[in-house]
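Hello again,

I reread your note about wanting to compare the complex against the isolated chains. To keep things tidy I'm splitting this into two emails, and this first one only covers the full assembly. Below are the input lines as submitted, including protein chains and any nucleic acid or small-molecule components. They are followed by the predicted structure of everything together. The single-chain runs will come separately.
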Amino acid sequence: AQSVTQPDIHITVSEGASLELRCNYSYGATPYLFWYVQSPGQGLQLLLKYFSGDTLVQGIKGFEAEFKRSQSSFNLRKPSVHWSDAAEYFCAVGPPGGGADGLTFGKGTHLIIQP
Amino acid sequence: DTAVSQTPKYLVTQMGNDKSIKCEQNLGHDTMYWYKQDSKKFLKIMFSYNNKELIINETVPNRFSPKSPDKAHLNLHINSLELGDSAVYFCASSHAPAPGGEQYFGPGTRLTVT
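Full-complex prediction:
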C-alpha cells in the first residue's frame, strides 16, 4: 500500500531564513505528488504538484519542490520564509495516471516562524 | 464564488443522533471526495465518487454514507453518531479520473459529538 512520510512533526524557522520540509513516499510506481498548506481553521490549499517532466517544480507563495526518484522524495523549499507561512504543511500522493482514488497524505509538518 | 463549499462549518450534536454535512462544487469536476481529519491533523480518505463508481475506504464504518443528488453535490450522512466521530470533515473535488487533476478542498466542517 502507498504511504507518505513526513519525518518532521514540528519545524521552527526564523523569519527570513530558508526552509526545507521533507517528504518521502512509498508507491509501486511514480505517483502524482502534491504539497498542500493548511492555515489554522482553514481548508487545504494546493502549493504545487508534480506529475512528470522537470523534477523541480515551482508553486505559489514562492515555494518550490524537487522530485528525486532515487530517494523517493519530494521535499518542499522556500528561500526566505515570512511570518504568514506559519501553518501545517501536508505532502500527498495520488495514483499515477490519474484515477478517482483519493490522495494519501503524510501526517503533516507544523511550521513555526520565529520573529 | 467559492469553488468548494460545505455546510455547516460547525456541527455540535449528541451521541446517537443522525446528521448530514453538505458539499457543493462549482468547478465542473467529475469526482468528489470526503476526508476525515482527526485531532492529530491526520487526513484520511473516506470516499471518492463520480457518476460511475463509489470507492469506499474499507475502514469507514457503514454508519457513514455519501449521497450525490447531482454531479455538483456530495453530501455525507452519518447515522448513530459516536464520540470517535468528532473530527473535521473535508469535502474535495477534482477532474479525476482524468490524469493531472489536483483536488480542491472545501473549508471543512468541525463535528463535535458530546
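For quick reference: Chain A has no helices and twelve strands.

B.
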